[in-house]
Design a protein that fits this description.
Helices cover 43% and strands 14% of the residues. It is α+β, with helices and mostly antiparallel strands. It has three domains: 81 residues, no CATH class; 110 residues, Beta Barrel (Butyryl-CoA Dehydrogenase, subunit A, domain 2); 125 residues, Butyryl-CoA Dehydrogenase, subunit A, domain 3, CATH 1.20.140. Strand 2 and strand 3 form a beta hairpin. It binds flavin-adenine dinucleotide (FAD).
Amino acid sequence: MEDFVAWIERHCPSSIRGKRLSYSGGSKHKMPSPEFESWFDACVERGLTVPEWSKEHGGAGLNSDEAASFRSAMEVVGAPLPLFGLGIAMLGPTIMEFGTDDQQKRHLPKIARGEVCWCQGYSEPGAGSDLASLSTRADDHGDFYLINGSKIWTSGAYKADWIFCLVRTDQSVPNQEGISFLLFPLDAPGITVRTIDLINGGSEFCEAFFDDAKAAKNDLLGDLNGGWTIAKRLLQFERASVSRGEFLPRGGNLPAALKKYAADDFAARNNVLCIEMDDAAFQLTKRRAKQEAMSSGTPTFATSTFKFLSSELESRRLDAITAMAGTQGLGWSGNVFTKEELKTTRSWLLSKGFLIAGGSSEVQRNIVAKRVLGLPD
Ligand SMILES: Cc1cc2nc3c(=O)[nH]c(=O)nc-3n(C[C@H](O)[C@H](O)[C@H](O)COP(=O)(O)OP(=O)(O)OC[C@H]3O[C@@H](n4cnc5c(N)ncnc54)[C@H](O)[C@@H]3O)c2cc1C
């Protein structure tokens, strides 16, 4: 196997090692720095933004052992992820499974090279957990569909170039049977995107309004009215990526916070110990499940278990840090708080969102009960 550590050391400038930098590509995200750009370019050239994807799709064609070895070499060197986003984590694998040759050729290399940034148009004001009741419609107009309706909680839509969107294409059949999966650019006429301010001070969330927006027929993914199966499959990829920690806030350091704020507090020590033990058990379970899944190779309904556990653990971890820090844990601005404390407050608030994103904890419990444990409805 190739010596990835040596390759990364050659291409990843030391000034960006160990730094929390991220880049989501597309026409609107800024490159974090020129040094990051040279690292990104080197990865794109070798297909290492998506190590497991085939070379034809813009990847490096590595098998899962080689890709794991590349990722652990990045950790050893402290190299930041060159590219990150919904295109890589969710849509790309879905297009590989359901897309035509033409769709794979047009979309996958652009995702791999970070040329297009994608967002997810699933939720609507009246369709969240009960996603199949969505009402944004797409009507057939010969060469194209006309889309009317709206989406909400569309993360990052204001900086995205394209949207993958669930639309209703048949109103006369039961909800799940009349849904299709469409891809279209967000800069088309008839589309308005507005940001929503969040409790953590950010405004990553958006609303998207479609008023006779056009989507090309050749960007219907899978069969007409066959979108529900694709939507569920993509959610498995989404939940798998959340459970790998890719989208979690990851702020604060639990043992360091205990030492700093509550070293002599028995209850706090006990709580930290329980969280650390649960986390260790979770990491071991994930490793075992990964080995078991190697044979099937793709995420299953068990991803709901991992999405549930990882977001709950992250929330418990940040709750504990915030509680131990006392008033220092509730800082929003001002120089009585350290930078780390201010960042942890925002991560704590954001961690609550991940109990809901990608399907709430209650919904994951329902899926685990039905699909993993086989319990009756
Ligand atoms: C950080 C974040 C990012 C997001 N990004 C996106 C995105 O990019 N694109 C997108 O389309 N959506 C996105 N969402 C929206 C997300 O998918 C929905 O918020 C989620 O599916 C829940 O839907 P809802 O908000 O309408 O709540 P509701 O469905 O109204 O649920 C309200 C409450 O009822 C509970 N509940 C609902 N049904 C059941 C049930 N059957 N059994 C038990 N309890 C139930 C829920 O758990 C929840 O506590 C994001 C959400 C968050 C928080």
